[in-house]
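Example 4.3 (complexes with small molecules)
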Amino acid sequence: MNVKEIVSKMTLEEKAGMCSGADFWHTRGVERLGVPAVMVSDGPNGLRKQANQADHLGVNESIEAVCFPAACATSCSFDRNVMRKLGKAIGKECQAEDLSVILGPAVNIKRSPLCGRNFEYVSEDPYVAGELSAAFIQGVQSKDVGTSIKHFAANNQEYHRMSVSSEVDERTLREIYYPPFETAVKKAQPWTVMNSYNRINGIFAGESKELLTDILRDEWGFKGLVVSDWGAVSDRVEGLKAGVDLEMPGSLGTNDQEIIKAVRDGSLSEEILDQAVERILKLIFRYTEHRKKEVFDRKKDHKKAVELAKQCIVLLKNEDKILPLKDGKDEIAVIGGFAAKPRFQGGGSGHINAKQVPSAVEILQNYQKVRYAEGFSAKEDVIDQKLVKDAVEAAKKAKKVVIFAGLPDSFESEGYDRSHMRLPDCQNYLIKKILKVQKNVVVVLHNGSPVEMPWADDVKGIVEAYLCGEGAAEAVTDILYGKTNPCGKLAETFPMKLEDNPSYLNFPGTDEKVSYAEGIFVGYRYYEAKKMPVRFPFGHGLSYTQFEISNLHLNQKAVKESETVEVSVDVKNTGKMAGKEVVQLYVRDTTGAAIRPEKELKGFEAVELEPGEKKTVTMTLNKRSFAWYNVKIHDWYAATGDYRIMVGNSSQNIVEEAVVHYISETELPFVVTKDTILGDLLAHEKLRDYTKRNLMEHMGVLVADENTQKANQAAAEAITTEMQEAMAQYTPIRSLRSFSDYPNEEMEKAVRELNELLK
Ligand code: BGC
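Answer. The structure with beta-D-glucopyranose bound is encoded below.
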């Protein structure tokens, strides 16, 4: 379809109308020109297609659909294939239900465990969030259905989400909050990007040309359309100029009128409007011209949901090999309201109308007879002594106890943040009571974000099932009984307590501002730098088999900025059960050129292995793997020097290390002025000799020569040569005038000559 031609035939009113939704979920059509309306839907982990009364908070019922694991869980797969499969399944369902775009993935960084939407978000780490989201997008879009990566950008809390300004410095935005979007755009070209509600450094994301055009389109090469989050538009004309093509859900024509008025009075160029309409039409025809006949087979997709959940669940602790349970042999008591009614998804716009949700109590019957006691309600935080007593009795009689704990729906949802990081008190109380009568306790957790675990040292097993979709119970029981080998790894750190979190003092802000004062030190980047003990580290997850990672090899020992280096390791399954290991590659900058985290994830690979099998994994590192964002040049930069390559199966279990020498090909701009300090001159290859020859002598009294030292033994003892040199380091050229006869003309000449040497 020639969209340019269609645009040329549209009236101004039609074009302005095209830039907002016809209703909650549809774009507008233009019948006379053969432009159909298309429907979009949440997302991200299943379809929330609303047939009737529409809303954006998941309040009203949508069609019956399949609820796949939420991103808090799928991220733990650390497996691009898993994400691609999930994307394909959802894309197929969209085709069957005539949905042109699924509103996901949601990739905002988990800055605080309290963010109400963390269950929908991928990780605290930008690399893993970008890689996994790109794979998901590729999966969905392979079915000719679009995605909407959201919420761009720096939307990391629900508190005042539609008005708050995220105050974030440039380097932190570039290193932490933008990369999930950047990677997804560069690797997978999502059909749409959804701008967030909030402001960034005072400017609404939806009115920031820098964000939506300069960075997103010009720098990263985004080709699709930008859609506003539902109701995010403040000034429609400013938004259009900045790069918001489509306003959703629309404003019943009010903002269309603003656009028309602005074009008429010349404050908005019609070309900008035409461009937005073109992008919208392109999306519409891209979808309608590739319609596929698909069937939404809910039974079949339920099975896929179970299979996917099995790839995500994380075995956090397994002392004395309490797991797997022995089919029928162990007498088991199952305790906790979540065993009878799993919490498998979060609330808000991602809420799926799932009907096929078996409970663990039901599924466990396939394995053996179990004694079930509710112990606590899964809905509220009230200690019911009768329930506790029954549960303790059941626990006493059993050989092993499995407690299904977690966060009730009301504890975490879109629209508000959590107020603390604890489980409901009634659950912690019950777990303690059970531990008094029973040593063999396993806790299964259903939660969308980390919880404090005051009992973690006393229970023998912990299974983090997160909100892993409607197949939760089937997947969890298979793992409990060892029919499936757990393989998930945490994509976020579980701190000991909320107060340990780096954002703690600044979350969620006041006065319509939230300061991201911790900068780049988010998640493990912070805990590691502070050498702070955590409950479970980033990347952690156990298996029923054992893996050996060995034989780290780099294809070259030195790598230039323009080159890549290949890192390979062998992974072997040395145990008796087939399993999957996630090899994780971290890089540490030892150059000292900038403040950097202890290490950062720059590669990972999920590897499936039969018992005894060995595979070689290869990961490629490029400039970005070593670089940090240098605000002096507004670009990525890595200094020449040594970088450690660290490989393991958790951020806290590095088993192989090597060093690579990186050679920068970027010369940082350097201008010498009279305020330049001698240390910087001495550190510069081109200026060192000149400085030693011509400037150091002027250090006068500060640099005591040998004779002076001899003459004044006391001074020599008090101020050693090293100390003098160190002090000289911080002395500006201009101060040489204070220590010796150093006329201004001579100083200015030196500054000139030094700058000459830099040319
Ligand atoms: C949410 C989006 C969602 C949209 C439509 C908004 O409130 O922030 O994530 O896609 O509603 O339901």
